[in-house]
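Chapter summary example.
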Amino acid sequence: MARGAPSPADLQVIRELAAREVEVTASQLESWRRTGILPRHRRRGLGRGRGSVVDSVDPVVVESAAALARHLRQGRDRRLAVLEWFAEAGMAPKPGAVQVPEPPVAAVREAVVWVLRGSVSQRLLETARGAAGAGEEGENALYETAGRLLASRPYRGAASPALVRAALLADEDVPVKAERPDSRSMVYLVAAIGLGAHEVGAGALAEAFAASGMYDLTAEDWEQMLGAAERGEAPPVDWGPLERHADAVGAVKRASDEELVRARTVLIGLRWFYGLYVMHGLLMPDTPAQAALRQRIDEWGMFPFLDHLIAVSPSPRQFAESLAVCLEPLFDDLYEALMEQLAEDPYVFRIPGDERGAVGFGETWTLTLDELPNGRQAVGDDADDGLSGQSA
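The structure predicted for these 392 residues follows.
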């Protein structure tokens, strides 16, 4: 074989992908191997001094090259392609399709860390840490920078799907936003990390926690709890977890390969449960199984937080940031609780008394939409705003 010429194994990979109308070149394959994102062909030794040979092309190499060809376009950073590949590998394949192989977890970790280092949350964390010990000047700079960054990504949260559903059925205006402080209040959490919670005060921190949507508590609820601790009427608050949670880069670096894969399982699972909850607002027929799942989420007070965390069709950067959050045990525990509930009653799309199952479910939903005063257009125009609190 001439020096620099494609190997027979690479030629076979190129031919197999060409049959699927996927175009790759030998130089691309070798470039992907050099960066560690494409496995090498398995070789069999021929004995001492006789070298080695590739007996057959490993299907994992073919499918990995196909995944990279799908996601890695010219001029695009390979780390974004790796994240999309990792997300795709976590999904169940369509009937008749081959399961997408996993990308190298080391490449996934590198890509997630790269995204997090450039994220607004990491810039806020670095600003907060820089303000510590810098006096009033540092404090002013922290609030100015944090306020500017948070204002660039406004978020107030989606309205309750139950309220959206009721408004659609009554032909009333659909509520657009949740009734809680917008994300700019989160500046106080940033300040607590850098300056200390005692410098920020219970009232400001209460606004910040309410804006996060955690446990679906109001600012008044938080202020009552934090104020009691501040006055010594309740045990003091341990703020250590706040700083550890904020250090997403460190968490990803410390996570094992298995923990990163598990975080993906949790994220994809929570995305499905979140989608079910949201679709309740779009007049999807309700069933006892769906109601039980919504009740579990409500018992945890986590719908507002999931609304903040999850995008139904995330960009690679959103996926990476959400993946890092799902390393937290809280989300793993919530996912397990919902899976347990689903096992108890798996008939999410079966209306009681309708033996047609999913077919009857779909027909009932279609009929409900058609019977709206303005038809399906009412859902398309109004509910889309009411159920989307995600920032761009």
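To summarize the output: Residues 49-53, 382-392 have pLDDT under 50 and may be disordered.
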